[in-house]
Each structure stands twice: as C-alpha cells, then as structure tokens.
Design a protein that fits this description.
13 helices; single chain; five-stranded antiparallel beta sheet; alpha+beta; Uridine Diphospho-n-acetylenolpyruvylglucosamine Reductase, domain 2; about 25% strand; Uridine Diphospho-n-acetylenolpyruvylglucosamine Reductase, domain 3; globular; Alpha-Beta Plaits
C-alpha cells in the first residue's frame, strides 16, 4: 500500500472509524463511505484542511466524463440511498444522492408518479451522479431537463459547510438557485447529498411508432409537422446507423383521440410508412456505450437535428458511426474504428464541421484515443474559474475536470 494511503487511513480512521478504507479504485487513493450528511461534512472539512483532493462517487457509471485526475479520496455516497420523503399530494419528493435511479422511480410509481427523466444506466446510476453529469434523454422533450425538475437540494461545500438551496414546493423563489449551478458541475463545486424533485403523473396510454428512411433529412418535414401539431408526443428520437435512419415517436393519448391515425396520415404525406415498435427501443442510447466506442455528446439547435445526423455519417469513411438524437437538439454519437481516424474525426467536428452554435463533449474514449474531453471558450472558462474559486478556493473537488 502507498505510504500516503497508509498514513491517511490511520489518521482518518481515528476520526471516522470504519467509514474510511483503502479499498478504492486505485492504489493511490482511499475510499470514504459516510453514513449521513454530517459525516460528509466532516470528511470534506478534514480533506480541505489538509489540501487532499476529493471525487464524489455514486454508481460509477459516468466517472470517466470530464477525464479528471485520480484524487486522494473517493467519497462514496452509496450509503446515502433512501427516499426520504414523498408527499405525493404535492407532486414532490426528497431523495438522497446515493439512491439508484430505478429504486427512486419504483418508489414513486407506488403512487402513480415519476420523475420525468430517462437517464443512462438507470439500474446503476445514482440520483446525485445523474444531476452532477446533467444526464437526460428523450423525455426532455415533454418534461424539460434536470434544471426544470430539481426544485431544491442539500449540498456540502468543500470546507464542510452544509448548505440548502430551493425548497420542497414547486413555487419557490427563496434564495439563490444554486441547484441549477450544481447541475452538470461534475462534482467540482460541492457534494450533492439530497435532492428535491418535482414529479409528474405516470403516463397511461403510451404507444410507440417509427418511420425509416435512408437519410435523416427525410424526417425534417415530418418532425416539424409533429412539433407544430396538437399530437401529445412524449418523445421524438432519431436513431442512425450506416445506411439506415429511424425516427421513433412515442404518443401519450387515449385511443379515443385517434392520434395514431393522424400521425399515420402525416407520415404518409411525406412518403413514409409508420410501424408500431416495442418498448425495448427506449434503451438505444445506453447501447452506444460499448468498450470499443468513443462516445460524443453534441448539442445543436433543434432546427439542425436532421442535418447534423446526416453530417455525422460523413465524418470519416473508415469509421462506423451510430447516433441517437433527440428532437430538442442533443445527440449521443458512437465512433468505432482506428484510433487515429477517431481523433481526426473529432478534430474535424470541432473545427467547424457542424453548425457554429454546436458544442461537443467526449464522454468516453476507446483504447488508444486521447483527445480533450471538453473544449470551453475563453469567456465561459473565465466565468467558470471565478465560480470555482468562490466555491472551492483550495481546488480539492474534482481535480482535473473542466480545467
């Protein structure tokens, strides 16, 4: 065992007992597993005083996002895994950050409610990690993103200060809205320990349909027509593989509304044939994260969705490109092929192959691929660094992420 680990475990064990161990993801770090918010606070204060870096860990499904450096301490929130409160009459709930997403949704479903979000790897991903990575899927079209669904949270700052932001009711304007700032911060500003969500009623009339075409550009008119219509579209998603594109449409309307008939006519007017599809298609985004794939997250304006999907298929003839794109402009893209070709393709995309307003992040890198995970423009970077200095002046949280 590394000498630092030995000495730190001895010292920390004296403070926190069996909460600290050497069983961490690498031999240079230790693992701390607090049992409550107060222990999280004490561990962070301890680390801050000694200038020890800390990375919060949930289910570990997105630890590679942002490519941070190995810390002195991995702070596991696995033991903070309870649904604390669910006042179902108010359509809100409070949950600890270490609770698995599927566990939360199962508890809410007992009262016919859910959080309107479909993140990656719901069986393993934890609530805190999903918020820290700002992960959302196709349901964003209907219910909004995480910043629309989180109404409050409890967090622990780098110096151990416990802070609360927002509240437990939907209409709340008290204090600064730190929840929006912490969403997507990848554990670099504070450790999220509890979250308050606004909820929605479970949909009861879901039906899934799809149309296929050689190129995504064939869907542009249909996509615009659906968005301009009164169809109750739960999700609109385009899945693209070499030589075939498919747009899936999930409706949530009673059969008496005959919305599937209207959708079928709209598709026929565009020369497309509509088919009903199984629920298994909901996991298509998860399937892109194979060990041999480099996975990108690309954000474009909604009007550029179909054009972007087709452009990505042309990025390199030596690569296999698969993508899952949402109508609101978020694309998850898997690149497979020689490492040099993958890196060259990412360079081309970042140099302006797509619309100038697009942003590109590398979520996962295949073996042999080495590129910047994030490229942040200087004006935004300056603001982010100033916020980081305010929240974490000793720079102990999330070492190497963003900067």
């Amino acid at each position: 065992m590394h000498s630092f680990v030995e000495s730190w475990v001895r010292e920390a064990t004296a403070h926190f007992g069996e909460t600290v161990s050497a069983a961490s993801p690498n031999a240079e770090s230790v693992l701390a597993s607090p049992i409550d918010v107060e222990q999280v606070s004490k561990i962070l204060a301890f680390a801050n005083d000694r200038r020890l870096s800390v990375v919060p860990v949930g289910g570990g499904t997105k630890q590679q996002w942002g490519r941070g450096a190995a810390p002195h301490i991995y702070l596991s929130l696995a033991r903070l895994d309870r649904v604390i409160e669910h006042p179902w009459q108010d359509l809100t709930c409070t949950v600890q950050a270490g609770c698995a997403w599927s566990k939360l949704q199962q508890a809410l479903a007992m009262h016919g409610q859910f959080v309107g979000l479909d993140p990656l790897f719901p069986e393993r991903a934890t609530v805190g990690g999903i918020i820290a990575s700002n992960d959302s899927g196709a349901l964003r079209l209907r219910y909004g993103g995480l910043r629309d669904l989180v109404i409050g949270m409890t967090l622990v700052l780098a110096d151990g200060t416990i802070a609360r932001t927002g509240g437990k009711v939907v209409k709340n304007v008290a204090g600064y809205d730190l929840a929006k700032l912490l969403t997507g911060s990848l554990g670099t500003l504070a450790v999220i320990t509890e979250i308050n969500f606004r909820l929605h009623s479970l949909p009861h009339h879901l039906r899934r349909f799809s149309v296929s075409a050689p190129q995504a550009s064939r869907f542009s008119s249909l996509l615009a027509s659906i968005r301009a219509s009164h169809l109750l579209a739960q999700t609109l998603q385009i899945t693209c593989k070499p030589e075939i594109s498919r747009m899936s449409i999930v409706l949530d309307a009673h059969a008496a509304a005959h919305q599937e008939e209207l959708l079928s006519r709209m598709a026929a007017d565009e020369g497309l044939r509509m088919e009903e599809m199984p629920a298994s298609s909901d996991m298509e985004r998860d399937a892109l994260f194979q060990a041999d794939a480099t996975v990108l997250k690309i954000a474009t304006v909604p009007a550029q969705v179909c054009e972007t999907v087709d452009l990505l298929q042309q990025v390199s003839p030596s690569l296999q490109v698969e993508s899952v794109s949402q109508a609101h402009g978020l694309h998850t893209v898997a690149l497979r092929g020689p490492s040099a070709s993958v890196m060259e393709a990412i360079h081309r995309i970042r140099l302006g192959m797509l619309h100038p307003e697009s942003t590109i992040s590398v979520l996962q890198m295949a073996p042999g691929v080495d590129v910047k995970a994030l490229e942040i423009p200087a004006p935004a970077l300056n603001v982010m660094q100033a916020i980081k200095r305010q929240f974490d002046p000793e720079n102990i949280l999330g070492p190497g992420k963003f900067f």
